[in-house]
């Protein structure tokens, strides 16, 4: 294996998504016990459904008989049945029954990969194993989603761009005063500044030097052994209700090389009657404003060519963009080298 081949493998791994990670794939309310849910994750088709106890099964969305999508099928006593010929598979990927042919040789065979699943904060996470981490480490969630001090709403959106564009966008606070200049509170602030980057215990914090509190002026990435997320603040005036700034917590899921799914929790630190007042205000008036901002990001990123990273000319404002790319490349390099070492040993 040459150095050039290794470099290409690393770039491909970064582009398709790191292994050994928990990724959100759906809202909890979307996974039901009476109807399967089809999802895509890192170019794999998955099907999810709930057991009677509320826990979730996740296997390949592929009927072992002829390859029809199991997500088009039905749930039978906690298992999933293919709508094409009725083949029934359980949550471990084992063929339970072939109704069209009793005592068929397929019955009892494990035919499909199954995946670990967990739920947190109204989202469903699926673990994609790696060679070094075949079993899932704990999913680490941000403190805003593990206590009662913050309240908010989860929103999701599919973007027709590589997931790396979404991460770059989050690591780039300077775009706020330009792209979102006519959007609610993001209309304020200077259009000139320098950026600084500070390391944290788990990742990094990127911020404007001369401005804080006028716009989307900083973001922070937390990188854990099996997941990564970002958070940032959107300044809010008193007219937007109680609770101070809006805290955004974001995860990004690679679907394939040109598609990703973003998960954003929009949160405020409020309690008592103020909490209920803000939740009502958000649903009644503020939500549309936030979707407008998110759509501005989506449209801009979808308009960029897939090879933009090969032609771009970065400058000082791109400290955060460079840092997140370094983190992904380093992790991908470790995974590829581990896999190549195993192949060499065999």
Write a structural description:
With 346 residues, the protein is an alpha+beta fold. It has two domains: 22-128, Rieske Iron-sulfur Protein (3-layer Sandwich); 143-330, Naphthalene 1,2-dioxygenase Alpha Subunit, Chain A, domain 1, CATH 3.90.380. The chain is built from six helices and 17 strands. It has helices at 3-16, 163-170, 176-179, 272-302, 308-311, 319-345, and strands spanning 21-27, 37-41, 44-50, 56-60, 74-76, 79-81, 88-89, 95-97, 117-120, 123-128, 151-159, 195-199, 203-208, 218-224, 227-234, 246-256, 259-268. It has a seven-stranded antiparallel sheet with strand order 11-17-16-15-14-13-12, covered by helices on one side. It has a four-stranded antiparallel sheet with strand order 5-6-7-8, with no helix packed on it.
Compact summary:
The protein contains 6 helices and 17 strands. The protein is an alpha+beta fold.
